[in-house]
Amino acid sequence: xxxxxxxxxxxxxxxxxxxxxxxxxxxxxxxxxxxxxxxxxxxxxxxxxxxxxxxxxxxxxxxxxxxxxxxxxxxxxxxxxxxxxxxxxxxxxxxxxxxxxxxxxxxxxxxxxxxxxxxxxxxxxxxxxxxxxxxxxxxxxxxxxxxxxxxxxxxxxxxxxxxxxxxxxxxxxxxxxxxxxxxxxxxxxxxxxxxxxxxxxxxxxxxxxxxxxxxxxxxxxxxxxxxxxxxxxxxxxxxxxxxxxxxxxxxxxxxxxxxxxxxxxxxxx
Length: 269
Hints:
- The chain is α+β, with helices and mostly antiparallel strands.
- The chain has a domain at about 1-75.
- Helices cover about 30% and strands about 30% of the residues.
- The chain has 7 helices and 12 strands.
- It has helices spanning about 20-30, 65-75, 110, 115-130, 155-175, 205-220, 235-245, and strands spanning about 1-10, 10-20, 35-40, 55, 80, 85-90, 130-135, 140-150, 190-200, 225-230, 245-255, 260-265.
- The protein is globular, with a radius of gyration of 22 Å.
- Pfam families: Acetyltransf_3.
- Keywords: Transferase.
- It comes from Hungatella effluvii.
- InterPro entries: Acyl_CoA_acyltransferase (IPR016181), GNAT_dom (IPR000182), N-acetyltransferase (IPR051531).
């Protein structure tokens, strides 16, 4: 089965070929087109190469999905969210030229080098479909910072959340007098960590909260049920922001440099 669908991006039409036939997919891809494989569970040995995206039925490919597949194929950034003042989107290689050197922090060399940023885009976005995104001010279309989700480093987040779950489970078990044991709960995905950095000229304008609120909505709706934030004790601005977004303090520990770190977890229920 083969079907061609059209999606409009900024008024421009793009054709997407959806097919269960490898020959059709290969020909469309070789011609520079966008393709989606159609999986037939009743066909053994089916190959849908070189499709990066696969659906079980054509109806699964809605307009948003089609647009994202086209954008990935043509190296156009995904739009993650929009607010009244901001666009949160994937970085492009060209954004490296607009980073502010004075605002660079640890690990920020990735975003200040076109080559490193290109490698980040090709690996992080392509395989995980999340990461650190560009925060763009709508009126001027200027990149005013970055924010997003990433895998927590080290064992602090996972270990502390696991211990919190154990303590909560122990309390519930003590309080419960049920004769029959409760069914085991499904373990959720590894938590993702929220991070943000608004460049100095645009701080104190509410942009961080505006961006982080939309990223939380996006992350908990699509990626995971657990989003956390690790904040240094003295970073009162980030603590206030986290609490205003509904995060709650769940643990704390000292870093290798003897700084006290707080672990906050978002209330995503």
